[in-house]
Amino acid sequence: MRPVWLAVLLLAVSGPTVAVERVVSLAPSLSEIVVELDSADLLVGVLDAGERPAELKDLPSVGRYGQLDMEQLLSLKPDLLLLWPGSVGPAQREQLKRLNLPTYIAEPHNLEQLTSQIEAIASQLGRSERGVSLAENLRQRLDSLRQRYSRDVPLRVFYQVWDRPLYTVGGGQIISDALEVCGARNVFADLTLPAPQVSIEAVLQRNPDVILASDQAQLDAWKAWPQVAAVAQGKLLLVTDKGLERPSGQMIEATAKLCHVIAPDR
To answer: How far apart are the first and last CA of the chain?
Structure first.
């Protein structure tokens, strides 16, 4: 299935076979992929959202998450844009579309799509060999994690994004796939929104074996409901690695850390 999916992806983004020289990345995860492909020399601008990789600290900014500086972007004369749709508002995405700038759109919903998109981005950058090598290494690491953490009955996991209001991840969000690699199942995998708001009652009803959050106080709050399996079993687990929030090559190792948090005995 993967080769067919990749072939369709490459066909969709293929264009004139002209070597790119001036790339602007419109998402931190895409900037990170370019660095991982040893292609930071091609970047002339990036969209800011959090800390940059050291290799990109002196590059011009083309705005911040959700606030693209169109004038600055055009002044850089890019011959390729790397775009994650969520990083730019709908109106500015329409502006970019009307400009007819060569654009690669990346929005992976699972880790297999991520590795295939890394290959496709490498091809767009004229660094195909590096892309194939990196993607193959990432797939091997993923296969190893799946074998190590496989379970006959997956652990039921609630992944908490925020507490007030209560947010989680839906089944089409790439973090949900990372949980599956770890032998777990997102208890809200049936929800289609990337970050749906849920109620405490809904969490109680789905009775997760494990609750994950990035803040200890948010985890401690669940002790008010001792009837939840995760509370009764002491499975309120802290996830401190922010790598799960950036779908780039480093997310595979962030997934490995997640697996260790969920199942340290494996």
So the answer is: 29
